[in-house]
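#struct-help
A.M.: can someone run this one for me? Single chain, 227 residues.
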Amino acid sequence: MPEVSTDSLDEQQVRLLAEMCILIDENDRRVGADTKKNCHLNENIDKGLLHRAFSVFLFNTENKLLLQQRSNAKITFPDCFTNTCCSHPLSHPLELEENDAIGVRRAAQRRMKAELGIPMEQVTPEEILYLTRIHYKAKSDGIWGEHEIDYILFVQKDVTLNPDPNEIQSYCYVTQKELKQLLDKASRNEIKITPWFKLIAETFLFKWWDNLPNLDKFVDHEKIHRM
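D.P.: on it. Structure tokens below:
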């Protein structure tokens, strides 16, 4: 694996680079584990390194979607607006468990607490709906990028927020109209959004959003959408 200096990067974010992500093949079968650092280096991604991830879309009871703006300390896609929470299950027993994606849903609960300060008891894994998976690749800069099979997770609940400023610089709840305005701003380069959020917003998100009480008909655990 290549050696890349992290001396100029945020100390807290660099510590997270030692976490062990779950390596998978293109059909989401587990093939091993490697550090978050190695999983996010373009040099390794270009050789096919692929890991498991998730994206949470949390809606309140007014059907508004919680967005976050990633902090400028983030190593990949700093300052970008994105969906509620995006991260990785780790290579340890509780998050490796694959039955009904329970390991991924546990990881989502853990990261919503870490990033957004949502108390663990407010959103349990059982309240997180696993919809489907997408496979995408994106470069953040010349060194860092993403190559993930991303589990799409939906939650509808009113929650308490206490974000970690090292993770999130701002957050907001948006209506569909407000999100479309934000996407328009991004298309004019007035703000930045993450590539996975852009892909999901341009394909599936509004259809799912229109059907929040009836999402079961969109559940598809067989197909991996190649984006």
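A.M.: thanks! The chain has a mean pLDDT of 94.
D.P.: also worth noting: The radius of gyration is 17 Å.
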